């Protein structure tokens, strides 16, 4: 049985540039760094960055990151001119952005329970909430 997310690994073109984005802009803590990889932490999230050649699919696959409402406002202000890949049309405040290597990220205020409560009140066509 799956009990949660263990870690996320992203391939990045330049580890130092990616570390700067995730620490200075998103506020993660750098826990270890070598010439070809780095390990960051934020809450229970363990993020590994590996040097390589990133490639991206043209779909909505992405990583959603949680933050407090206060931090969400701060991050949105900090990321005003950052590259975004989607406009929020779902329950809860979200900002959809690309990291320096084009990985799709979402900063999201909400939880699975808030999303399901929203669907119970306004279910999209064909959606069943269990």
UniProtKB/TrEMBL annotation:
Tell me the InterPro entries matching this sequence. Answer: Glyas_Bleomycin-R_OHBP_Dase, Glyas_Fos-R_dOase_dom, Glyoxalase_1_CS, GlyoxalaseI/FosfomycinResist, VOC_core
Give the Gene3D superfamilies listed for this entry. Answer: 2,3-Dihydroxybiphenyl 1,2-Dioxygenase, domain 1
| Entry's Gene Ontology molecular function annotations | dioxygenase activity; lactoylglutathione lyase activity; metal ion binding
Domain VOC, by residue range, is: 4-110
Work out whether the entry's keyword set contains Ribosomal protein.
no
Question: Which keywords are on file for this protein?
Answer: Dioxygenase, Lyase, Metal-binding, Oxidoreductase
Record protein name field: Catechol 2,3-dioxygenase-like lactoylglutathione lyase family enzyme
Source organism per entry reads Roseinatronobacter thiooxidans
Organism lineage string: Bacteria, Pseudomonadati, Pseudomonadota, Alphaproteobacteria, Rhodobacterales
């Amino acid at each position: 049985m799956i009990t949660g997310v263990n870690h996320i690994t992203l391939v990045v073109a330049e580890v130092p540039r990616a570390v700067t984005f995730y620490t200075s802009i998103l506020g993660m803590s750098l826990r270890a760094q070598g010439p070809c990889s780095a390990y960051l932490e934020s809450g229970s999230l363990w993020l590994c960055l590996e040097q390589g050649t990133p490639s991206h699919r043209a779909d909505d696959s992405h990583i959603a990151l949680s933050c407090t409402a206060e931090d969400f406002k701060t991050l949105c202000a900090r990321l005003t001119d950052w590259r975004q890949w989607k406009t929020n049309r779902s329950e809860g405040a979200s900002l959809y952005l690309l990291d320096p290597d084009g990985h799709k990220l979402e900063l999201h205020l909400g939880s699975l329970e808030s999303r399901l409560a929203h669907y119970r009140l306004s279910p999209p066509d064909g959606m069943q909430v269990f």
